[in-house]
């Protein structure tokens, strides 16, 4: 095909679309600008210029903040995790040791476990109040439920006690037992 024949077919299609001359010019300009911008983005190299001293300052600030956060995490762990030593269970002792799989495990930290589990079927109010989140009224609710129902058959049965939900149960589960 020659160039004149191609022009003729292009104008024929443009006439069929009923595009005015001004619209064709605007479309052509926009198309030209798009082609120029696309070609510029392909041929221009993107280089990242950075000052090594500025980079070192940023890294030093990152390290400083990371150290502060780690110290805060250690302080919070010391404040909120139970700090009891693990004792070896004797055959004569009635104390039961918490298995490490029962305790909540926190990665990259040493988790301590307590050696005395509280038997929710025999514990008095003072013993129950040693559990995290259990105050006098919750302890009394546990005792009332235990007396009304003849004790607990499973730890999950604590959900039936007024005021104890899934979250509170999960917090105290590693520290309670049903047997001595």
Helix content: 40-55%
Order of helices and strands: HHHEHHHE
**What multimeric state do the chains show?**
single chain
Mean of the pLDDT scores?
A: 79
Tell me, what's the shape?
A: elongated
**Please, how many helices?**
6
Q: Trace the largest sheet across and list its strands.
A: 1-2
Largest sheet report: 2 strands, parallel
The tally of beta strands, per DSSP, is 2
Q: pLDDT under 50 segments (min length 5)? A: 84-115
Radius of gyration: 37 Å
Instruction: Report strand %.
Output: under 5%
Span between N and C termini? 99 Å
Structural class: mainly alpha
Topology of helices and strands:
Blueprint: H1 3-17, H2 21-43, H3 52-80, E1 118-119, H4 125-128, H5 136-149, H6 166-172, E2 176-177
Parallel strand pairs: 1-2
Give a description of the structure.
The protein has helices spanning 3-17, 21-43, 52-80, 125-128, 136-149, 166-172; strands spanning 118-119, 176-177. The chain has a two-stranded parallel sheet. The protein is built from 6 helices and 2 strands; from the N terminus they run H-H-H-E-H-H-H-E. It has 180 residues and is an all-alpha fold.
What are the salient characteristics of this protein?
51% helix, 6 helices
């Amino acid at each position: 095909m020659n160039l004149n024949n191609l022009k003729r077919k292009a104008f024929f299609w443009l006439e069929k679309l009923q595009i005015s001359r001004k619209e064709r010019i605007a479309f052509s300009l926009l198309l030209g600008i798009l082609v120029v911008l696309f070609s510029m983005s392909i041929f221009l190299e993107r280089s990242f210029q950075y000052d090594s001293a500025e980079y070192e300052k940023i890294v030093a600030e990152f390290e400083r903040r990371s150290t502060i956060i780690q110290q805060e995490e250690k302080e919070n762990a010391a404040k909120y995790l139970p700090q009891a030593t693990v004792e070896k269970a004797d055959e004569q002792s009635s104390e039961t040791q918490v298995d490490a799989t029962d305790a909540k495990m926190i990665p990259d930290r040493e988790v301590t476990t307590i050696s005395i589990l509280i038997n929710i079927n025999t514990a008095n109010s003072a013993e129950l109040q040693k559990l995290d989140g259990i105050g006098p009224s919750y302890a009394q609710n546990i005792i009332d439920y235990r007396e009304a129902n003849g004790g607990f058959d499973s730890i999950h049965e604590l959900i039936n006690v007024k005021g104890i939900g899934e979250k509170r149960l999960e917090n105290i589960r590693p520290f309670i037992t049903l047997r001595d």
